[in-house]
Amino acid sequence: MAETQQVRANYSNEEEEESPEPETSRSRRRRFKASNMSFGEMLEMVDILKRADYDGKYGPYPNPNVRKAKIMAEVVKSLHRNFRVRRSKDQLRKRWLDFKRA
Q1: Measured in whole angstroms, how far is the alpha carbon of residue 88 from the centre of its chain?
Q2: Is the pLDDT of residue 5 over 80?
Q3: Phi then psi for 53, rounded to 5 degrees?
Q4: Cβ 60 vs Cβ 67: under 8 Å
Q5: Tens digit of pLDDT for each residue in 45-71?
Q6: Where are the alpha helices (DSSP H) in 18-84?
Q7: Could you give the CA distance from residue 71 to residue 49 in angstroms, rounded to a whole number?
Q8: How far is CA 74 from CA 60, 67, 71, 99, in A?
Q9: Is residue 78 exposed (0-12), middle (13-18) or buried (19+ Cβ within 10 Å)?
Q10: Is 88 helix (H, G, I), strand (E, B) or coil?
Q11: Where does the record place the region Disordered (predicted)?
């Protein structure tokens, strides 16, 4: 009987010593509200993406992923500057893909 109590005590001490699970990167990531885009915002985004050749139609580019990330960062800054709207790159990338398909 004394052995089982000591085993239980050791087991409960081990649980207390364990550190809590580290937060995942997803929980720390800033989330932006995905509200509807105004027509002006959409025009601004399309204008920048077409001007910068986001889809790479006009030539092979070195490091296309880095190039696309920079262009999308420019779109994020422009929308925030002109419309005071915060949107993530992922949201804008999805909107652009949906817009192209339609």
Answers
A1: 6
A2: no
A3: 55, 55
A4: no
A5: 999 999 999 999 999 999 999 999 999
A6: 25-28, 39-51, 64-83
A7: 7
A8: 21, 11, 5, 19
A9: middle
A10: coil
A11: 1-34
For 7, other C-beta atoms within 10 Å of its C-beta total 10
Q: How confident is the model at residue 3 (pLDDT cuts 50, 70, 90)?
A: low
- Amino acid (one-letter) located at 10: N
3 state SS of 50: helix
Structure tokens at 101: 């398909």
Under 8 Å between Cβ of 83 and 38 = yes
* Residue keyed to tokens 């089982």: 4
Residue ranges of domains in the chain: 2-101
> Quick check: 80 and 86 in contact, CB under 8 A?
yes
Please state the length of the chain: 102
Q: 50 is written with which tokens?
A: 């077409």
